[in-house]
């Protein structure tokens, strides 16, 4: 039997990437969701995989996106909550701001899809005690916001070099992508215990021991240097996960399917590439390798499997304030 694994996708929209890099026009909330969602559905159907798709609430309020979001549900994919405004500094919100952000997205997603989300992932891997407390209080089944990597400061530095941000925007993002200490956090599922609340956490997997990301954003970035190196790196990460008995939770993004030929607005985005077809070929190649090594489930199916293993003892962590 192949060991278990899970797969998810953050449906970050064009405007979110434009805002992240200071590209004018994002305030009009341009969308590529009707373009990219059919590509995602086709790829998953080809591979016979089901995803958990984390939807930004603001996009669920755009009528142009309704049909695409419903088509994800009809194709059997789980829908999760990815906040309303997709602000990576969400973990600095006040209690009231946090609750409004989560609740507003919850309502918008339910109105657009007919599905009440029970999974949450913070934008930019945002996580805080108040966030977890409210998500648990609303009856969400699990959180998937954590990225336990040691290279957060390096990612942040590279991001600041490529993005055209005002001093105010840079200040908001001063702690984006976390600190080196986040690499000490668990990479296997565990339980957050916040006051009298408990919530399952399924971290986005980083390579055991060295704690470097393996999700496809980084694979495509490496592919700009060498496609062969990118594939070797991905396969290496999968084998280390198997060696350490880590059930990898692999993360996808829309930019794993689109390049600057389709999105000229993002021409400066790291790892964007020039040809969408080339990116899709690499994405499919990696996913085939992933499927050959692991029994892949959507996050909700993976969580269901964990819940049905009474012998499994999950570590409990009381606070996000320290690793």
Average pLDDT value?
91
Principal-axis shape: globular
The name of the CATH architecture is: Alpha-Beta Barrel
From the N-terminal CA to the C-terminal CA, the straight-line distance is: 34 Å
> What Rg do the Cα atoms give?
18 Å
Helix share, percent:
40-55%
Which assembly state applies to the chains in this document? single chain
Poorly predicted parts = none
Output the helix-strand order. Answer: EHHEHHEHEHEHHEEHHEHEHE
Question: How many beta-strand runs?
Answer: 10
What is the strand content? 5-15%
Count the DSSP helices. Answer: 12
Main sheet overview: 5 strands, parallel
Question: How many structural units, i.e. domains?
Answer: 1
Instruction: Determine the structural class based on helices, strands and strand pairing.
Output: alpha/beta
Fourth-level CATH superfamily: Glycoside hydrolase/deacetylase
What does this protein look like?
With 323 residues, the protein is an alpha/beta fold. The chain has one domain: Glycoside hydrolase/deacetylase (TIM Barrel, Alpha-Beta Barrel). The chain has twelve helices and ten strands. The strands form two sheets. Strands 1, 2, 3, 8 and 9 form a five-stranded parallel β-sheet that branches. The protein has a five-stranded mixed β-sheet with strand order 4-5-7-6-10. Helix 5 crosses helix 6. The longest helix is centred in the first third of the chain and has 19 residues. It starts with a strand and ends in a 6-residue tail after the last strand. The model has no long low-confidence stretch (mean pLDDT 91).
């Amino acid at each position: 039997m192949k060991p278990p694994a899970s797969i998810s996708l953050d449906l970050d929209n064009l405007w979110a990437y434009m805002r992240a890099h200071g590209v004018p026009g994002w305030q009009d909330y341009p969308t590529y969701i009707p373009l990219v969602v059919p590509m995602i559905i086709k790829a998953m159907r080809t591979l016979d995989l089901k995803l958990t798709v984390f939807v930004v609430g603001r996009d669920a309020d755009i009528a142009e996106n309704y049909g695409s979001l419903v088509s994800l549900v009809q194709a059997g994919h789980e829908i999760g909550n990815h906040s309303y405004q997709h602000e990576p500094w969400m973990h600095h919100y006040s209690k009231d701001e946090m609750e409004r952000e989560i609740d507003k997205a919850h309502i918008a997603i339910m109105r657009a899809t007919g599905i009440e989300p029970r999974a949450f992932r913070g934008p930019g891997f945002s996580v805080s005690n108040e966030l977890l407390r409210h998500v648990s209080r609303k009856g969400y089944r699990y959180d998937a916001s954590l990225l336990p990597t040691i290279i957060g400061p390096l990612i942040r530095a590279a991001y600041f070099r490529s993005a055209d941000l005002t001093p105010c925007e840079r200040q908001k993002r001063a702690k984006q992508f976390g600190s080196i200490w986040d690499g000490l956090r668990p990479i296997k599922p565990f339980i957050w215990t916040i006051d009298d609340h408990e919530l399952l956490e399924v971290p986005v997997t980083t390579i055991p021991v060295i704690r470097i990301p393996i999700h496809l954003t980084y694979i495509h970035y490496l592919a700009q240097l060498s496609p062969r190196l990118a594939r070797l790196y991905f396969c290496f990460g999968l084998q280390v996960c198997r060696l350490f008995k880590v059930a990898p939770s692999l993360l996808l993004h829309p930019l794993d399917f689109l390049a600057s030929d389709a999105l000229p607005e993002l021409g400066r985005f790291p790892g964007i590439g020039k040809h969408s077809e080339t990116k899709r070929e690499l994405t499919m190649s990696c996913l085939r390798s992933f499927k050959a090594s692991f029994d892949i489930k959507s996050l909700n199916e993976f969580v269901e499997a964990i819940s049905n293993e009474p012998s499994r003892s999950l570590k409990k962590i009381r606070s996000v304030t320290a690793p």
